[in-house]
């Protein structure tokens, strides 16, 4: 529990629009958990609330029992890559990581380690503006790994990776989970998710549709993840009351 | 705070655009001083000296944009997310930026003063006039100009934190100086003296200002500018702490 993620009654409203509606789930250490949902389901807003970037309207999201802002050394506790995270195009990849290291009090030698780990050492002296999408993903992953954190939160980390890169990512995430870390990743690449995750959280319309093991969701593989995902999310269920019911019965 | 300041310094050191911007300041002073001499309708006396060095203060337009880069630049390149992930306490992050950018604004003012003094002395010597190094009015103009540079860098940090769109913040800031203070300022008469760019002009003005408009006395301009700087700093910290980053 100490390393897990707890989301309880998490809600975000923008005016009349409810982006996230009374979301409740837990993410356990030791396994990779997939965070799935169609576009606009509220995934990114949920992750941003978890990381203290967006203030919830109600409810809370805790990491190891504490809000992100209360963590004494956030980069050493949580590594995160969010979709709208960028790099200054004129800054070298190594310098980007050094800035994060300096802010977190992490020695620069650790920067070289994570560059090596994500296979970016050769490109570290190039300006990030010249990086391919796959290289940007690797740089983002390197920044998440920098503090050797117990919790990893990754938004679409597989986006833009080639098949070899995807295989490397899968191996890396499974290895990190096997070390007892908490790994939460969002993805649209369901075939990739099916090969990587043990547990799944599915949201749609800001409400929870499923939280549990992948095996249970797919009825021990009698249904594909894609079929289950479509079944749970295609229903144009935007009524918060119904969503809450679904959440309590499924979660 | 020490860590945050060193982090901001590293951020600045690893990109080029802020330095190109600050390098424009001495160029402006060189061009302004040379223009003053070449136009040739002024005696190269002590008054002309302080008028030449009054260009140091005008370079605060560059330090204003430089300051805007601090926060709005981070939003532009989406590095703000990583910045706040490293340091969830946003107030100190903005505080460190205000401090670092104001210091670099002042340093840019010092650099353009040195370049301006060198160029002016060379022009004076070339024209056979004697350059009065001891002229106190010139040194007061230089000091005021450097302070104006620093204040506008900090105000720029505030403008960037409030508006967050880099292009929008720069457009608003320049439109403010050119249109609001220039044109609307004429409509409101005496009240225009209290606007930030006019206050800066009062602070960094020459002994006999080239602008005919009434300005506040130098100390008055300085006080008003300090007040604006504090207001923008408070607004920058206040809004940055509350706003969602998405």
Mind explaining what this structure looks like?
Chain A is an alpha/beta fold and 251 residues long. Helices cover 38% and strands 24% of the residues of chain A. Chain A has one domain (5-84, 151-250): Rossmann fold. Chain A is built from 10 helices and 9 strands. A 6-stranded mixed beta sheet of chain A has the order 5-6-7-3-8-9, sandwiched between helices. Chain A has a 3-stranded antiparallel beta sheet with strand order 2-1-4. The longest helix of chain A has 16 residues, at 163-178. The two termini of chain A are 17 Å apart. Chain B is mostly helical. Chain B has one domain (2-239). Chain B is 78% helix and 0% strand. Chain B has helices spanning 2-13, 17-39, 46-53, 55-58, 60-76, 80-86, 90-126, 136-163, 166-188, 196-203, 218-242. The radius of gyration of chain B is 19 Å and the shape is globular. The mean pLDDT of chain B is 93. Chain A binds chain B through residues 44-45, 48, 51-55, 68-69, 71, 74-75, 78, 80, 82, 84-92, 95-96, 98-100, 102-105, 143, and chain B through 3-4, 6-7, 10-11, 14-17, 73, 77-79, 81-89, 242, 244-246.
């Amino acid at each position: 529990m100490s390393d897990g993620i707890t989301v309880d009654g998490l809600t975000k409203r923008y005016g009349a629009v409810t982006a996230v509606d009374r979301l409740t789930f837990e993410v356990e250490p030791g396994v990779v958990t997939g965070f799935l949902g169609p576009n606009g389901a509220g995934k990114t807003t949920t992750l941003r609330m978890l990381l203290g970037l967006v203030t919830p309207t109600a409810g809370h999201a805790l990491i190891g029992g504490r809000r992100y802002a209360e963590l004494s050394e956030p980069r050493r506790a949580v590594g995160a890559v969010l979709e709208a995270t960028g790099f200054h195009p004129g800054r070298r990849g190594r310098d980007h990581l050094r800035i994060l290291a300096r802010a977190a009090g992490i020695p620069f030698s650790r920067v070289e380690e994570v560059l090596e780990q994500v296979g970016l050492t050769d490109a570290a002296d190039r300006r990030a503006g010249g990086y391919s999408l796959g290289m940007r993903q690797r740089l983002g992953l390197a920044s998440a790994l920098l503090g050797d954190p117990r919790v990893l939160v990754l938004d679409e980390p597989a986006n833009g990776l080639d098949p070899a890169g995807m295989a490397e990512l899968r191996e890396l995430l499974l290895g990190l989970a096997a070390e007892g870390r908490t790994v939460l990743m969002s993805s649209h690449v369901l075939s990739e998710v099916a090969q990587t995750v043990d547990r799944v959280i599915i949201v749609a319309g800001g409400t929870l549709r499923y939280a549990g093991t992948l095996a249970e969701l797919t009825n021990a593989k009698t249904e594909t993840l894609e079929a289950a995902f479509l079944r749970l999310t295609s229903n144009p269920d935007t009524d918060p009351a119904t969503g809450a019911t679904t959440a309590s019965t499924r979660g | 705070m020490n860590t945050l300041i060193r982090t901001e310094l590293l951020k600045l050191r690893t990109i080029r655009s802020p330095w190109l911007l600050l390098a424009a300041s001495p160029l402006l002073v060189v061009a302004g001083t040379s223009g003053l001499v070449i136009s040739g309708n002024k005696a190269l006396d002590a008054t002309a000296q302080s008028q030449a060095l009054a260009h140091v203060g005008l370079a605060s337009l560059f330090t204003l944009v430089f300051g805007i880069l601090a926060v709005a630049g981070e939003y532009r390149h989406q590095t703000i997310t990583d910045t706040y992930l490293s340091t969830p306490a946003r107030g100190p992050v903005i505080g460190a930026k205000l401090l670092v950018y104001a210091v670099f604004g002042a340093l840019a003012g010092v650099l353009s003063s040195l370049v301006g003094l060198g160029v002016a002395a060379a022009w004076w010597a070339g024209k056979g006039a004697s350059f009065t190094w001891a002229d106190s009015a010139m040194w007061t103009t230089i000091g005021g100009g450097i302070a104006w540079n620093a204040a506008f860098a900090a105000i720029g940090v505030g403008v960037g934190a409030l508006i967050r769109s880099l292009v929008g913040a720069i457009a608003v800031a320049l439109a403010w100086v050119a249109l609001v203070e220039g044109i609307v300022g004429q409509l409101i008469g005496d009240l225009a003296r209290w606007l930030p760019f006019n206050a800066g002009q009062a602070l960094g003005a020459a002994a006999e200002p080239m602008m005919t408009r009434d300005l506040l006395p130098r100390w008055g301009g300085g006080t008003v500018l300090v007040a604006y700087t504090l207001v923008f700093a408070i607004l920058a910290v206040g809004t940055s702490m509350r706003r969602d980053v998405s």
